[in-house]
Design goal:
about 425 residues; alpha/beta; about 40% helix
Length: about 425
C-alpha cells in the first residue's frame, strides 16, 4: 500500500498540511549516487539544515570540517525544532530544498516513505565501517531494502545511578539494575534514607520524555506496542504482558512514594534536578541532559546501565539524527563529503563533548573509554538500541493529548493498568488507521 499525498500530509501536522495543500510541485528526479560525478573531487558550497536545538553540535562539526580542508564550504541553517518538519515539507513542495538535512531519525521515516530523499545504499555499502553503524538509525532510514539516510549522531536513553546513594542504602549496582525486582528493592532501600531522598524519578507529564525512557523496559523483553509494516500497522497493547508489568512497576514506584511527589506534574522541565541535587539514586535519562549541567564531583560516583526488562535483558531508545540528501540537491557530492567526514572515528569519538553518542561502535577507542566512560554502555551494546518505525509516532507518543501519555497517567497515577491498556489499544488503532501509511 503506497503512501498517498493525503496520508503524508496528515502525518505532517496541521501546519505543514495547510502549506502543502496549497499546491503540488513537480518532484525532482532522483539523485543517482552511482553517477560519475560522485567519483569527482567535492567542490563548492552546499546548504545544510539542522535542528535548532542541536545547532551547537552541528556548528562544531562544520567548524572542524572547514578546518580540515579548503575545497568545500557549508552554509548551515538551524531550523527551530517545532518547525523543522513543516519547513522541510514546504521546501520540498516548492522545489527549493537544502542540499543536506540533519533530521531527527524518527521524523526521517515519514519523508523516506514519501520518496523525497535519495537512495544512498551504494554509498553506505561502500563505507568500510558499514557493519559498525547503529542498526536502530539504519532501520528508520530503510525502505524496501534500500537506505535513504545514514546515521549522524545518537541521543540514547539509559539508567543513571548515584553510587554513593546506593552504597549508603547497602545496595550493589548490579543487584539493583538487573530486573524490576532489583529496581524496587533498591528504590525502597534508598528512599528509606530520608524523606527528601528517592530511589527513582520520572517526568510523569512529559509524553516524549516518557516514550524515550519507558519503552526500553518492554523492548528488553522483546515486546513493542505497534506491530506490522508501514501501511498495515496495528497496536499490540491489550495482551502485552511486558507492558502490563512495566506499568505496574511504575505505579508501584508512585504508590509507595519512591519517586518525588512532583513526578505527576513534571513535564520534563525538572527532569534531572533531583539527580543533580543527589536526591535521586536512579533516573532513566539521556547523556547530554545529565552530563551537561552535572555539578562538580557527581559524575565521579555515577554509573550507567542499559534499561532492564521485567526479568532482565537491556535496551535503550536509539534517538538522534540521520543525514539525508533530498532529491533536487544541487551539490550532493560536497554534501556527501561532509557526511563522510562526520562519520570518521575522530569526529564520532569526540561527540560526547557536545552531549551526544557516536553511531559507530568502533568509536569506543581506548581514549574514548578513558574520557567518556558514562557514554560507553549504549555504544558497547549498540545492537540493543531500538527506534520505533511508525509514521504516526509523533501523534501517538509525542503529543501531550496522545494515547501514550493518557495510558501512562491512568495506569501509573490512577492505578487502573488494565483499563488504561484497553483504552490505549483502541486509541492507538484509531490513529494508526487514520494516519498510518
Amino acid at each position: 500500500m503506497g503512501l498517498t499525498r493525503g496520508r503524508f500530509l496528515s502525518l505532517m501536522g496541521a501546519g505543514a498540511a495547510g502549506v502543502l495543500l496549497g499546491g503540488c510541485a513537480k518532484s525532482p528526479p532522483p539523485i543517482d549516487v552511482t553517477a560519475s560525478r560522485f567519483d569527482a573531487p567535492a567542490r563548492g558550497t552546499f546548504s545544510l539544515w539542522c535542528r535548532g536545538g542541536m545547532s551547537p553540535v552541528s556548528q562544531w562539526l562544520v567548524d572542524r570540517f572547514h578546518a580540515a580542508q579548503d575545497q568545500v564550504r557549508v552554509d548551515l541553517t538551524p531550523v527551530p525544532d517545532g518547525q523543522y518538519v513543516t519547513k522541510l515539507a514546504t521546501a520540498i513542495r516548492g522545489g527549493r530544498v537544502p542540499d543536506l538535512v540533519d533530521i531527527d531519525d524518527i521524523n526521517s521515516a515519514a519523508f523516506i516513505h514519501r520518496g523525497v530523499f535519495a537512495d544512498l545504499t551504494p554509498l553506505i555499502e561502500e563505507l568500510p565501517f558499514r557493519d559498525r553503524l547503529s542498526p536502530g538509525h539504519l532501520a528508520l532510514a530503510e525502505r524496501n531494502g534500500r537506505y535513504h539516510g545514514v546515521p549522524a549522531l545518537a541521543d540514547n536513553s539509559a539508567l543513571w545511578c548515584n553510587l554513593d546513594l546506593l552504597d549508603r542504602a547497602g545496595v550493589g549496582i548490579d543487584d539493583a539494575t538487573g530486573s524490576f525486582e532489583g529496581y524496587l528493592e533498591a528504590a525502597r532501600a534508598v528512599s528509606a534514607l530520608g524523606d527528601d531522598i528517592h530511589g527513582w524519578s520520572y517526568p510523569g507529564n512529559g509524553s516524549g520524555a516518557l516514550a524515550f525512557t519507558v519503552q526500553p523496559h518492554f523492548w528488553a523483553a522483546d515486546a513493542d506496542l505497534i506491530a506490522g509494516e508501514i501501511g498495515d500497522q496495528r497496536a499490540t497493547i491489550r495482551d502485552n504482558d511486558a507492558l502490563r508489568r512495566t506499568l505496574r512497576f511504575l505505579h508501584t514506584l508512585w504508590d509507595e512514594g519512591l519517586v518525588p511527589s512532583n513526578a505527576d506534574s513534571d513535564d520534563g522541565a525538572l527532569w534531572a534536578a533531583g539527580f543533580h541535587e543527589e536526591k535521586v539514586a536512579m533516573i532513566p535519562n539521556g547523556y547530554g541532559i545529565i552530563s551537561r549541567d552535572a555539578p562538580d564531583g557527581l559524575l565521579d560516583h555515577t554509573a550507567v546501565r542499559l534499561l532492564s526488562g521485567p526479568d532482565g535483558g537491556g535496551s535503550f531508545f536509539d534517538g538522534g539524527n540521520n543525514f539525508c540528501l533530498p532529491n533536487g540537491s544541487e551539490n550532493p557530492v560536497a554534501a556527501w563529503e561532509f557526511v563522510r567526514f562526520c562519520l570518521e572515528v575522530e569526529q564520532q569519538a569526540a561527540l560526547p563533548e557536545s552531549g551526544y553518542i557516536p553511531v559507530r561502535s568502533d568509536a569506543a577507542t581506548a581514549d574514548y573509554r578513558e574520557r567518556f566512560p558514562l557514554a560507553l554502555p549504549t555504544l558497547l551494546d549498540i545492537d540493543a538500541g531500538h527506534a520505533p518505525l511508525s509514521l504516526a509516532y509523533n501523534r501517538i507518543y509525542n503529543q501531550n493529548d496522545g494515547p501514550w501519555l493518557a495510558m501512562f497517567r491512568r495506569a501509573v497515577f490512577g492505578g487502573d493498568v488494565d483499563g488504561a491498556m484497553a483504552d490505549a489499544q483502541q486509541r492507538f488503532d484509531e490513529i494508526l488507521r487514520q494516519g498510518d501509511a
